[in-house]
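Homework help board

Subject: predicted structure for assignment chain

Our instructor gave us this sequence and asked us to write out the predicted structure in token form, then describe one feature. I got the tokens but I'm not sure how to describe them. Can anyone check?
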Amino acid sequence: MRASTRKKRELLSETALRLFIERGYEQVSVDEIIAATGTSKGTFYHYFRSKEDLLGEAYGRLFVIIDQWSSRTPSQVDSLEGHINRLFLDLADAIEPYPRLFRSLSAAALQQETIGRRASEWQDRLAEALLRWMPDPAKTGLLSSVFHGTLLEWCKRDDLELKELLKSRLALAWNGLRAGGHAAELRLAPQLKEENIMRIGIIGGGLAGLTAAAYLSEQAGIEGVLFERSPQLGGRAFTYEKAGFTLNYGAHAIYGIDRHKLTVMERELGLSFSSKQVDKRRVMYEKYDQITPAPLDFINIVKTDLLSTMQKVRFVGEVAKIIAHIHELKNYETLGDYLAASDADEDVKELWEHLVCSNFFIAPEDARKVSGAVISEYYQNLFLSSRPVNYILGSWAVITNQLRAKIEASGRWSLALQEGVDGIRYEGGKYVLTTKKREEAFDRVIFAMPVQQVVKLLKGTAWEPFLAPYERNTPTEVMVYDVGLKHVVARPFSYISDMNNKMFISDVSATDHTLVPEGGQLLQGIAYLTDDFETEEERKAYLEERTAKMEELFDRHYPGWREAIEVKRVSKKAMVSSVKNIVTNRLLPVKLDSVPFWFCGDGCQGKGELAERAFSTARTVAQSIIAELKTPVAAR
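My token output:
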């Protein structure tokens, strides 16, 4: 490699690693690496196929240490044991200052083929180096396992010192090696009897079902089956590709990701994904013929033309009270009750209503039916967030694929796709699930499906009366209008919300460039829907009118979009949440008195809204079952 070529490659590599160390691998994009090095995309992709290739460069530093250690001659080594220990501790010295980087490497090696190859390469290099000095594969394999096992444990926890832990583990290993060299007979406890294994059936393979199964799959005493009626996992987080565009069934935006249950899951389950924040300065509201910054934070509140100076002062005060959890809103049954009692100007009331529409994906009349306590808690969390709106780069598939891989890797769980559960009964101390293919008995059953489907499945059983209060729950449905364009037709903002017609358009590819082919643009329009119609004809006419309004919004801000369409998908009634979180509906508890099953999903009682409630309830259910498994029978 020429000196100038090597210099460019090293610049990209060193800069990327520095950014990974400072901010974490998941938070750094290729565009940010390019900007930090003052190079171009062409230069970057000349040397590296992807960001994952750069992460693998970290192993290069470890190769150097191994090569330097291997180059020593026997005359320079006083003790074989000390020489080998020196290699392990030098490697630990190089790794320990950068826990975020090597945690990312550890997680990425399981998910990314490129990183996995590099990880295997450096492990092979280490094994070869050890065998040159100690030509006994059993002994070097033991020492290598001690090193890699200690490193993995350190990656999973932030309260350990790698070097000190490694010293103690190596000391134990060498004590065994000095004892005579021959392996003693292995002592084994009696094998656990079959009845000690808890078998769990999960019905539903959406985000909630996958999350619950992923947590449970980590427990050696649990095995199970996840049943999913459709041919793919993910439920409403389903993703598919067409003509180079990646389309989600709905948005893959996360509100307040830094305070979201997904970030907790990332750490606990060893997930690895990247996200990018929507540019708050390019989020706009349109009212009548005026476009103004959305009042998402104090800077935009000052800039917005939606409110007068005095109204801005009042709204800032309300935000401050929400953050301090002293706002009166939490004491009102509904937002409508609070607004009726408030002496605020109509513009402030309309802004509150519109914010709730935007974050809960509901029409204005439903926004007024949301509990004041729910809104207060939700916005306290969101206003405290430093990252209010983020996209998961690469779509929901990045999360669902990792959850699936974790479940399958356990070897104790099976995924039954295209196998819906048609019946359930209690027999012989077990719960028997019936599908068209089989009957199978389980110790515990988790319903991870829309509440309406739970009610339907339990019809005619002894448990039906306990589900009656949730039978009339209504879902949150929206119109989703996705268009993939051959080229960027316009990029005036990242998000435009039409306050007049209660709909918005997100330029998804402005934030998540991974979803489009080179030069393409992906726009997603969403219209909030009312569901109060006397006849089917009225409903159809209403949906046609909403479609026309959405296309007018595209015409107004993205001229030429019709001619540039490569992919188009319109879902006139897409379910966003299985239960609309309004006072006339009741979210299902994760556990009901007198009902022996567990429930999770976005229609259950949990933290946050939309996908977060699916994640949080599934985690709660899984942790409760694990605690039950670990509790002695006498203590139950």
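Reply (TA_rk): Your tokens look well-formed. For the description, you could write something like this. DSSP finds 24 helices and 20 strands in the chain. That's the kind of observation they're looking for.
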